[in-house]
């Protein structure tokens, strides 16, 4: 069930340094359209009445507002780190969101997120006071390395999960958590880490393995393959039906 008040935050103010393209990766072409367009469309299909806050670099010359399918949305100035971009969006909501409203944060760089996962995340969280995130158990042997790339240890993978997005928390809790992390100078790479720093335990919601974060050059063609497989499975429109 989709809650009445659902705020979506999409951090899209990154530079895509590891991708190394001629523009930030959210504007690179994937199956004929910018990555950002795919991501926003998947979110809109799952949560059509949500209100979107889209974090963009203040000097972003590539963005086109016509790409946003949401009726209610606002552009937010991104910050220097992902957490700063998200916190800027939370600040903008200060006089609009209630402390108990759900806020769902999803990287623009994850356009392959499946509709089933978007649905299940909210179903599971309906029973959860703290909130949680899509995640998948680590499936490989984990090595620790030194600065020269030599193995120093094999780590247990017992209980290790990959953190994905969306991550969803109540507005008041998430805002306090990210503020707290900033005040203490703690660098957090996702929302859950900030919540954990308060001594709380976010719920891990097992996700499909195809929620790739486009990060490196080869990820674009991988994402195109994932789209094709998902379209064959159904529930996701095929490239030929995309306008
Ligand atoms: N100051 C920042 C940095 C990142 N992001 C967003 O956070 C998400 C995850 O970040 P990442 O994959 O690291 O993207 P980039 O920062 O663009 O990539 P890189 O680290 O390679 O530069 C992306 O959707 C990115 O646009 C953001 O909104 N504001
Ligand atoms: C939030 C995130 O997608 C969880 O895996 C990820 O941490 C964001 O990427 P970054 O490279 O840490 O900015």
Short description:
One of its GO terms (molecular function) is 2-C-methyl-D-erythritol 4-phosphate cytidylyltransferase activity. The protein is of the alpha/beta class and 243 residues long. Helix content is 28%, strand content 23%.
Your description of this structure?
This protein has 243 residues and is an alpha/beta fold. The chain has a single domain, classed as Alpha-Beta Complex (Spore Coat Polysaccharide Biosynthesis Protein SpsA, Chain A). Helix content is 28%, strand content 23%. The protein has helices at residues 35-46, 82-92, 115-125, 171-183, 191-196, 218-233; strands spanning 6-12, 29-30, 33-34, 51-56, 73-77, 102-105, 131-137, 142-145, 151-155, 161-170, 203-206. Strands 5-4-1-6-10-7-11 form a seven-stranded mixed beta sheet, with helices on both faces. A two-stranded antiparallel ribbon has the order 2-3. A two-stranded antiparallel ribbon has the order 8-9. Helix 2 (82-92) packs across helix 4. Catalyzes the formation of 4-diphosphocytidyl-2-C-methyl-D-erythritol from CTP and 2-C-methyl-D-erythritol 4-phosphate (MEP). InterPro entries: IspD, IspD/TarI, IspD/TarI_cytidylyltransf_bact, ISPD_synthase_CS, Nucleotide-diphossugar_trans.
């Amino acid at each position: 069930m989709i809650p009445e008040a659902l705020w979506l935050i999409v951090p899209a103010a990154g530079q895509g340094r590891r991708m190394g393209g001629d523009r930030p990766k959210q504007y690179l072409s994937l199956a004929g359209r910018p990555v950002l367009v795919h991501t926003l469309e998947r979110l809109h299909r799952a949560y059509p009445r949500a209100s979107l806050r889209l974090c963009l670099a203040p000097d972003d010359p590539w963005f086109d507002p016509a790409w946003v399918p949401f009726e209610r949305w606002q552009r937010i100035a991104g910050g220097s780190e992902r957490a700063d971009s998200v916190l800027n969006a939370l600040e903008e909501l200060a006089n609009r969101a209630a402390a108990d409203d759900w806020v769902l944060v999803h990287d623009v760089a994850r356009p392959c997120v499946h509709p089933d996962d978007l649905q299940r995340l909210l179903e599971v969280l309906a029973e959860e006071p703290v909130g949680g995130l899509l995640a998948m158990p680590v499936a490989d042997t984990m090595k620790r390395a030194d600065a020269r790339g030599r193995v120093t240890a094999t780590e247990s993978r017992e209980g290790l999960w990959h953190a994905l997005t969306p991550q969803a928390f109540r507005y008041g809790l998430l805002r306090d958590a990210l503020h707290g992390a900033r005040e203490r100078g703690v660098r957090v790479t996702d929302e859950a880490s900030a919540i954990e720093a308060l001594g709380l335990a976010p719920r891990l919601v097992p996700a499909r393995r195809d929620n790739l974060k486009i990060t490196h050059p080869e990820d674009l063609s991988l994402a195109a393959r994932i789209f094709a497989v998902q379209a064959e499975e159904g529930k996701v429109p095929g490239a030929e039906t995309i306008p």
